[in-house]
Amino acid sequence: MPKRWPELGGPSFLDFDEARVQARAFLPRALFDYIDRGTEGEVALRALHDGFSRRRVVPRVLRPVSAPDPATTLMGRRHDLPFVVAPTALAGMVRYDGEVAMARAARDIGVPFCVSTQSSTAIEAIAAGAPGADLWFQLYVWRDREQTWKLLDRVAAQGVSVLLLTVDTPASPKKVHNIRNGFGVPLRPSGRLALDLALHPRWTIGVMGRYRAQSGLPSYAHYPGGKAVTQAISDPRFALDMVLDAAFLAELRRRWPGRLILKGVMDPRDVQMAFDAGCDAVVVSTHGGRNHDGAANPLEMLPAIRQAVGPGRTLLADSGVRRGSDAAKLLAAGADGVLLGRAPLYGLAAAGDAGVRHMLTLLADELRGFMAFSGAPDLRALAGLDWLG
Ligand SMILES: Cc1cc2nc3c(=O)[nH]c(=O)nc-3n(C[C@H](O)[C@H](O)[C@H](O)COP(=O)(O)O)c2cc1C
């Protein structure tokens, strides 16, 4: 198993926990909490982590596992690694030009990077800044459908062929930490926020200061008019249409010629409905425990979902993955691939694009290590082991 010791001057973290500590030191508290925390009582977030801890494998021995191969097939295409960088809003606030850095790092490691509708860099700039990256796009639907379709035209014009429609956000989640910290769009200036910025000068000068000097404060870049984060999105046409229905999915399927993935489904009946409606894959997800504080875990639901749809359908999963072993457990439970949200963001905060590459490499190494210790030369063998919990 290769060992990843920190290189001089490069990323110095050795796992998710260490990257998280470095991210917390670098980022203002308001931004760190926005990324890190769950919703309401954070029951769902704890349950995700507890669920991974409880799940254990019965290892096999005397098997050929000197070079475990975590390759997978997603929607008919082979991928050397079963990871996708998840869409995360405002990732460009973590580091200057952070979304381009993430897209480049994902490309270098050979995994797709999913751009969020709420990214602070527009799809055109990400595509230009990371040529050759496998870019996916995540859609939040605006009330003004014509503007939504125009956005999809821009996405398609960049050669993006995979679209994720997020459907697990039918309301605004209650997040006390964001309200207390004054974090939101628009950002609300306050004494507390000013102190937070003063206590994190590397970020305040290196990220915000640089944006201010070079391109203006970051914004939701896909929103027409490109509002800075300090301004409200007051135009009702660009309010998120949070209540979507099957008719909308059918219309989207008609309009989008590429691959279509429904993100944020948990019930086997909804997954079946997605495939019946012509989706190419789903993401079994609770949005990282950030939306519904009483939701079940993807790990619990995956076996029933896999059984309902059969072996040929592509199932992706995410939420709460901090280690290669967590990813292994989702893959063994029925997922073909795993989205990573916070992990690459912490890599980015800790050390820019090198940090994202390092984080993805560490997770891949941990996954291979888990496979070796379990006696699983490939992901199919991993799923065939006996699992407890
Ligand atoms: C800071 C942050 C912003 C996010 N923004 C979006 C978004 O814009 N669209 C979306 O579909 N999911 C969004 N998500 C959810 C992720 O795509 C993903 O489902 C989740 O982060 C996975 O859990 P993990 O962070 O524990 O890996 C966001 C997650 C985080 C942490």
TrEMBL record:
Entry annotated with the keyword Flavoprotein: yes
Domain FMN hydroxy acid dehydrogenase: 8-389
Keyword vocabulary terms for this entry: Flavoprotein, FMN, Oxidoreductase
Cofactor(s) in the UniProt record: FMN
GO CC term (a single one): plasma membrane
One GO molecular-function entry: FMN binding
GO biological process, one term: aerobic respiration
Keyword Flavoprotein tagged: yes
TM annotation in the entry: none
Protein name: L-lactate dehydrogenase (Cytochrome)
Record InterPro entries: Aldolase_TIM (IPR013785), Alpha-hydoxy_acid_DH_FMN (IPR012133), FMN-dep_DH (IPR000262), FMN_HAD (IPR037396)
Binding positions (glyoxylate): Y34, Y140, K263, H287, R290
CDD domains: alpha_hydroxyacid_oxid_FMN
Protein family according to the UniProt entry: Belongs to the FMN-dependent alpha-hydroxy acid dehydrogenase family.
PANTHER family the record matches: 2-HYDROXYACID OXIDASE 1 (PTHR10578:SF107), S -2-HYDROXY-ACID OXIDASE-RELATED (PTHR10578)
Entry-linked Gene3D superfamilies: Aldolase class I (3.20.20.70)
Alphabetized Pfam families for the sequence: FMN_dh
Ligand binding (FMN): P87, T88, A89, S116, Q138, T166, S285, D318, S319, G320, V321, R322, G341, R342
Residues annotated as catalytic: H287 (proton acceptor)
